[in-house]
Amino acid sequence: MLSTNEELQRANEELLLAKQELESANQELASLNDELKSRNEQLDRVNDDLSNLVEGIPLPVVVLDRQLRLRHFSPQAQALFGLPDDSVGQPLAQLNSLFSAVDLERVVQSAVQGLADVEHEYQDSEGRWWLVNVRAYRTADDRIDGAVLAFQDIHQLKSALGTAQSAQLDAERANTAKDNFLALVSHELRAPLNVISSWAAVLMTASERGMPTDEQMSQRAVTTILRHCQLQAELIDDLLDVSRISSGRFSLDSKPVDFAAAVRTVVESHRPVAAKKDIMLATSGLQSQAVVSGDARRLQQVASNLIGNALKFTPQGGRVEVALTRLGALIELSVADNGIGVKPELLPRLFDRFMQSDTSRTRQYGGLGLGLSIVKHLVTAHGGTVTASSEGEGRGTRLTVRIPLLQTAATEEGTVAAAPAESARLDGLSVLLVDDDVPAQEPLAHLLRGLGAQVQIASGAKEALACLAAGSFDILVSDLAMPGADGHALLRDVRSREGGRRRIYALALTGLASIHDRDAAIAAGFDDHLPKPVDVKVLLEKLSLGRGR
């Protein structure tokens, strides 16, 4: 009995010990469960953070495993590549809809094997540009277990960069062209001066040394000097036109104009040049009236530029054809030649400012290369178009202008004015010349006196007012830019003193030749404005308006 009790006691003790061990194990298990639960919660948070991080990044992101199969992809990537929800485990070729899987695999292998990030620009199948960033997928124990691809849309950036680079190249070309142009301006302005200076030196030397000069040589010297003065004036006019166009201060004096008559006038003025080069200057369609709304002088400038260019670039014995053709509501002016032609790649830039089709030709034939850019602006301002065509070098050029016709009949006011007669006389006119540049006054005074005018000279506003107070004049011709009181101040003073007396005809003759300068002169009280160097025929026409006022 005692033995049985002892055995029971030992069994109870063992049971109690087992119970204690079980309780201890249960406590450890509970602790492990708590720790596992905590780690699961942490893992869930990490997964949530990772999921929100990937989905929150506004980039398509794709994660690949070691076999380059899809392990994970962001919603942006799913939308970009059109991936089904069950695409996990699918090969990289799933991205083939936009990108070449072969190219992507090469970039991925480069990143994985080189253990460094790789960036590459791709243009997808739709033409959009992407920056693809690839990096190796590293595990916690630093093993490489795939790759991560991020796709960034850089299409707008690429387009903006391309636009900026193109603009920079255009600016560099424009600056180079402008530098070349300025050098050319210097050359073209000096060339006529050299001729003028040389012939003036010949005449002066002959006069100083009493050398005999025949009338033919003197006439040739004077004619050459006048012609080269006109060349300089035309160059300066072109420069001023470009300045007005650039500043937006270019305007037209539009009236009904017989475009055919304007072109006829220009053709006749160019016949001596054509004859000198033995060029046949043929015309057609110039006899029928073609009335447009425009500035007669500017339309003549257009025709003169086109015909002058054709004659310049056509060799000895060539042919230039000038034709006017009605095309419904348009009138077309076509100037074609069989001259040097234009390279096809240069045709689109033929009307660009500061651009010349060939600088070597520009030096060979002369000129600034501004004429056609001015023509384009003038034609556009008249509501028309201008185009150029050529089959290539040595195969001639055709320039075509189209301008809307005016549907009403031409008025007398709108016709092109005839040139003043060369034999105009100024008998009986009294003229007061005002200019601080005395050497500029002397030849003009000599010319006017030779045509019968009575001329008095004043070197400034103060002297001019004294002359006006002492005598009566029909016409006042004054410079604008003078020291002290300028021409504007002089005219305002003159007008304020006239009161009810006869109003003197006032003409501004000045180097200030812009539209703004003309408007300012008229506002100050001048009746008209002429730029220097003055066309003598135009000056005589203006002076004749002062007769009998």
Automatic annotation (TrEMBL):
Keywords: Coiled coil, Kinase, Phosphoprotein, Transferase. Its EC number is 2.7.13.3. The keyword Kinase applies. InterPro entries: HATPase_dom, His_kinase_dom, HisK_dim/P_dom, PAS, Sig_transdc_resp-reg_receiver. Residues 184-407 form the Histidine kinase domain. GO terms for molecular function: phosphorelay sensor kinase activity. It is a multi-pass membrane protein. GO terms for cellular component: plasma membrane. It holds the Pfam family PAS_10. It is found in: Cell inner membrane. This is histidine kinase. The lineage of its organism: Bacteria, Pseudomonadati, Pseudomonadota, Betaproteobacteria, Burkholderiales.
